[in-house]
Amino acid sequence: MTAAPRSGPGFPRCALFDTAIGRCGIAWSERGLLAIQLPESNDAATRMRLKLRCPDALEAPPSGQAANAIERIGALLRGEGSDLAALALDMHGVPPFHRRVYEVAREILPGETLSYGEIAHKLGAPGSARAVGQALGRNPFLIVVPCHRVLAAGGRLGGFSANGGIATKLKLLAIEGARRNGELFADDGALGFDPVQAVAHLKGADPALARLIDAVGPFRMQLKRTPSIYAALTEAIVYQQLSGKAAATIYARVCALYAHAQNGPAPEQILRTSEARLRGAGLSAAKYLALRDLARKSADGLIPTLAEANRLEDDALIERLTQVRGIGRWTVEMLLMFRLGRPDVLPVDDYGIRKGYALTLRKRELPSAEDMQKRGARWKPYRTVASWYLWRALDLPK
């Protein structure tokens, strides 16, 4: 008996396409769209996630309704407020309750938001906010069924199932010009959390920290972009135990040893360079050895890519990176906070944070690591934000 061919006019199709936020994926059938996939770390990962949703889809050039959907989605992600309500969806196999949720969500216009509870009320099931959230968490039609426009109670962002999580949700809301309490949502780049929600949580959890937050003002922590974990660690090694100006001068000299090294030297470049030449740029013997070890471990595949790092828990990343000579826990904690935007990092050995804690709690002595951990339990899961405010405590008038 001959197997049916995996092709034909009625067979599902899929493709990748470019947008302002990266390469997205689309799958479609004769009945309508089957899935929209937001960008993953690379094309292969995006394609794999799309295939998990639609394993029978064959890659093909988009035409007809698929090409129209790509054009409209692209316009929306450029901030042009494109209307996607007319795009047909193939909801074969979608549970009835999920269909009703998706139909209500599609009524939310760009720039507007609803809460999970408000959608539940529109469905005539006011106690089903949690079920609404679960349905949207399984939404295969991202962007077209705009689950990013659905918030938790009190204007909190809630969850988002796409790669990047809340950071991606913030980006989409910022592109569309959505507002919360009259203020535009801001695209916080790689921040993996909602800063407004974080500050509200901390103020409710700790009265002393609430007073500090009121004295300092809005949370303004800035992330520093990095092309790779390796590049960030290279710079961190050079900067250790130096003033910012001196470190920047030496780092610039190291980069100047190589052509096209604006983002720092590659591992193979460091490994090919003599000790005399690197030391001549201003590196100490310890830093030269640390850079060599980092380059060797990177060449051996032990230093994760940014995409791999984003999938690792904080403790796993700390354990992995502190195997590099010269890289301690504090260095990785700074990377987690200021390069990766992790929400729940508390560097208990940092002098500035310990001093800020003593000032905030009106203690004469600096706290022990155990005391910091104990008090910090109140601040979970936003100890990064608490740490930033404790640093700022040192800038306040006595």
Account of the 3D structure:
The termini are far apart. By secondary structure, this protein is of the alpha/beta class. The chain has helices at 43-53, 64-77, 96-105, 116-122, 129-137, 166-175, 195-205, 207-216, 229-239, 244-256, 267-272, 275-280, 285-299, 306-311, 314-321, 329-338, 351-361, 369-376, 383-393; strands at residues 13-19, 22-28, 33-37, 58-59, 114-115, 150-151, 179-180, 183-184. The chain has 4 domains: 13-77, Methylated DNA-protein cysteine methyltransferase domain (Double Stranded RNA Binding Domain, 2-Layer Sandwich); 96-184, Orthogonal Bundle (Arc Repressor Mutant, subunit A); 195-223 and 342-398, Orthogonal Bundle (Endonuclease Iii, domain 2); 229-338, Orthogonal Bundle (Endonuclease III, domain 1). β1 (13-19) and β2 form a beta hairpin. A 4-stranded mixed β-sheet has the order 3-2-1-4, sandwiched between helices. A two-stranded parallel sheet has the order 5-6. The model is unreliable at 1-7 (pLDDT under 50). α8 (207-216) packs across α19 (383-393). The protein is built from 19 helices and 8 strands. The longest helix has 15 residues, at 285-299. 47% of the residues lie in helices and 7% in strands.
